Structures are given as C-alpha cells and as structure tokens.
Amino acid sequence: MADNVRLVDLVQSRLDGFLDDRSSIVTSVGDDVTALLDDSRRFLSGGKRFRAQFCHWGWRAVAGARETPVTQRELDAVIGAASALELFHAAALVHDDVIDSSDTRRGEPSAHRRFAERHGARRWAGDAGAFGTSSAILLGDLLLGWSDELLDDALFGLGDADRARAARHLFNTMRTDVTAGQYLDVLEENAWVERDEQQLLEAARRVVVFKSAKYSIEAPLQIGAAIAGASEAQLATLSEFGLPLGIAFQLRDDLLGVFGDAAVTGKPSGDDLREGKRTVLVALTRSRVSPSVRRVFDDLLGDPQLTTEQVLMLQGAMRDSGAVDEIEAIIEREVRSANAALDEASLAPEAIAALRRLTARVTDREA
Question: Is the pTM of this model over 0.90?
C-alpha cells in the first residue's frame, strides 16, 4: 500500500508540474482561455489512478526480475508514462461524457455541463448546451495532445531508443483500440435493432474488450513493462493477466452503472439505463426475458427521463432474469483466469503480489 500511495503522489506531482509548464502557453493566448487550464487541473486531481498503478507494477514486474539495476532515468520515465496515461484517461472521460450526455462526473458537473453553466451565468449569446459541448470537445482534445507530449518527454528521458519505441507503439495501439471501442459503443446504441440476441452479446463483449479492458489494464501493464525492457514472453504473460482482469473490471463497472450508490459512485443510480448502454448485462437480460418483457425493456432503456419507478423496474428485470448472477460468475471466472496467468510467471515476486492485491481492488469495489 505504501508503494501505491507514493506512486499516486509522484504522478500527481508530475501532472501538476506539467500543467504549470503549459500554463504560460495557455495564458499567453489570453485570460479568457484559462478555463481550459482550470478544468484540466480539476480533472487531473484525485481519482483511483488504476492505470498509473498498473503501468508502475508492469514496470516493476520486469525490472525486479532482471539482473541489471534500476536507474533514476528509468524511474522518471515510468512515472512520466503513468502520468501520460492519466492525461489520456482524463481526455477519454471528457469526451465520453459528451457522447453520453452525462451530467456528472465524480459527483460534480461534467466538463460540458460546467462550460454550459458558465455560459448561462454570463448570459452569453447562443445556446449554452452547444457551447458546453464544443468547449468540452476542445478540452478533451487538449488533454489528448498533452498526454502525447508528456509521454514523449518521458520516453526521451529514458535514453533507450528500443524500449522507448516499444512503449510508444503500445501506447499508439491502445489509443486506436479505445477510439475504435468507443465507436463500437456508439454504434451498438443505435444499430442494436438489426442484431439478433447472439450478435448483441458478441458486440457487447467487443465493446468491453476494446473500449475498456485493453486501455484500463492490459496496455498500462505492457507500457510499463516495455520501459523495463520486457521480453515477448513477459509481455504475453502480462497480457494473459491484464485482459481478463480488464474484462472483469469493466463488467463490475457495468453493474455499478445500473445498481451503484450515487453517493459513492458520483453518478446517479441507473445512469447507464438512462444513457441506453448496450452492455453485456443488457444483452444477457434481453436474451433471458419473455418477448413481452423484452418489448417494455427496449421501450424504456435509453430514455433520459426515466423515473425512479422505471429504473427499479429495469433493475428488477435484470435481477429476475439471472443476468446479474451470470455477470458476477463471469467476473469471478475472469479473475481466476487473470490470477492463474501469474502462477509460475517470470516476473518479480513482489510485483506479482502487488498485482494480485490490485486484482481484488479493481473487481471488488463500490465505485
């Protein structure tokens, strides 16, 4: 736990320093664009830092198993890469909230809602919602660009071209995967009407893998490992661990999106139901209920004005169908698969122990 606390502090310090360096560029444009900097700091303050932690322990897993000692340049590089992942994550959250029309993030107004509120408070011309959406897209783009800058700074400081190239390739692949996965998510919220039940389930699983599992856990692990000079076998082991764990992580997130306590998650209970998320949970539910229940379920899912009673009705259908129990069983199965990948792994024992602890934290949580 002490290692994780120190890592979180180091990442926050690196992010703060990076934003301080970029603040002169932003403020040189004019005082009226400092809102971009203020909201960047807000989005990059706090959070669970799971991606940073997996990047760090991916590095430790390989660095601790080799004969050559760790250098300060290497440590600086992995902290920079972990921080770049947090910047990328912040960009993804801003854009995701725009796509989903989410009002809140971590218990506060989402970025586009915050920009819209500024517009309304100042009584500016035009539509507040349109201004908020446009501004949030630009904020997300800025954070995305900054994540690249921070990663490049970190890998340049590593002083090892082969390791830097490997880490950059993994980061680029992750970025493509999550963008394609986000498109799949948007696609399925609209194209589901022409899919049969098996196609819906397969599509939902693809969204889990590419929108979340790879970029949340597998890629951060491998990026950290690449900085340490990982072999192909070590990268494969971390993939065999990270991908099933990433699936379990997202399936837990899907359950929280439907049944989570708003006071803990920072988002209204049943928010994914109002957004019409076509998750594995939804696909399993639809495949198990009667045609009459399925028609009502489809009519309600995705209605932003769902009442509390209607949310409870959808939640009840999910529970009664057995879909919730099946999701819990899948999570348990994926966690077992992830842990099994670490058995006999050619990785540092202290990192394996830390990864097992992280496994429990990311899959047995309430937010």
Answer: yes
